[in-house]
Amino acid sequence: MVYKGIGVRFLYIHGEVTAPPPPGAQLQMAMNIQVNGPPEVMEELVNVPFTITVSSMPPSIGITIRGLLTIQATSDDVKRISGQLKSGNVPPEIQAIITQYAVFEAGLVARELGIPPTIPLPAMAQPQQTQQKGPPTAI
């Protein structure tokens, strides 16, 4: 599907640390994406409101992001998209666009809150020390 233009605007961003993460514990993150309400449809434009919530296990952070996805497309595509959204089905390309922007923005908010990355960073390889052997001895 080719669209003439795509834009994402965040209207509300909230993040809080409810408890400091336990030291050494790997946080498990859960993200929920919802398309809220009916889309706003114009001739070749559709506005899709959405909400993203991110929570952690063990419970220590909460992030909420509300926004608006704007798609400029042909009138046929706009009718198809709005019809699917009104029937309760979110087209996969719409969900992919929202997810792409949301994961990035939620990661930035988590970083600002001081939460470590949820993907473990590769450990630096320790240089191995070789034992100094003396010169071979002949008997």
From TrEMBL:
This is Uncharacterized protein. Residues 120-139 are annotated as: Disordered. Residues 121-139 have a biased composition (Low complexity).
